[in-house]
């Protein structure tokens, strides 16, 4: 899906790691929620309550998923899933544009 229709966008940005990771929340009529954001190069750890599907629109990063021993390289056109109630680590190697879908 290249565009979203009939959505509400929360104007206030989600800002993490001193502005190195930012996103905006998109809410669909069904209540489904996604975020669209940018990550600057760096190393980050995130926690999630809901299952997340993270689609990389541009850029490249490495992710260490919960319970994994090896880092997974992900680049534009690819996605990865993070199970609910977990933490995951990212090594962003270049400016990365992403879309995160939250699955209840």
From TrEMBL:
UniProt-listed Enzyme Commission number(s) = 2.4.2.1, 2.4.2.2
Which GO terms of the molecular function aspect are on file? guanosine phosphorylase activity; purine-nucleoside phosphorylase activity; thymidine phosphorylase activity; uridine phosphorylase activity
| Keyword Glycosyltransferase assigned | yes
Q: Which InterPro entries match?
A: Ppnp, RmlC-like_jellyroll, RmlC_Cupin_sf
List, alphabetically, the GO terms of the cellular component aspect: cytosol
Provide this UniProt record's keywords sorted from A to Z: Glycosyltransferase, Transferase
Question: In its keyword annotation, does this UniProt entry include Calcium?
Answer: no
* Reactions mediated catalytically: inosine + phosphate = alpha-D-ribose 1-phosphate + hypoxanthine; a purine D-ribonucleoside + phosphate = a purine nucleobase + alpha-D-ribose 1-phosphate; adenosine + phosphate = alpha-D-ribose 1-phosphate + adenine; xanthosine + phosphate = alpha-D-ribose 1-phosphate + xanthine
The record's HAMAP family line, in alphabetical order, gives: Nucleos_phosphorylase_PpnP (MF_01537)
The record's similarity note reads: Belongs to the nucleoside phosphorylase PpnP family.
Q: What does this protein do?
A: Catalyzes the phosphorolysis of diverse nucleosides, yielding D-ribose 1-phosphate and the respective free bases. Can use uridine, adenosine, guanosine, cytidine, thymidine, inosine and xanthosine as substrates. Also catalyzes the reverse reactions.
Protein name, UniProt field: Pyrimidine/purine nucleoside phosphorylase
Q: What is the lineage of its organism?
A: Bacteria, Bacillati, Bacillota, Clostridia, Eubacteriales
* Gene (UniProt): ppnP
């Amino acid at each position: 899906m290249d565009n979203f229709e009939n959505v509400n966008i929360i104007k206030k940005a989600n800002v993490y790691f001193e502005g190195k990771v930012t996103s905006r929340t998109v809410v669909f009529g069904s209540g489904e929620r996604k975020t669209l954001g940018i990550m600057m190069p760096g190393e980050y750890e995130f926690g999630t309550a809901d299952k997340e599907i993270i689609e990389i629109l541009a850029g490249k990063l490495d992710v260490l998923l919960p319970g994994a021993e090896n880092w997974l390289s992900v680049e534009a056109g690819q996605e990865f899933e993070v199970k609910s109630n977990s933490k995951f680590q990212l090594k962003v190697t270049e400016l990365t544009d992403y879309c995160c879908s939250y699955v209840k």
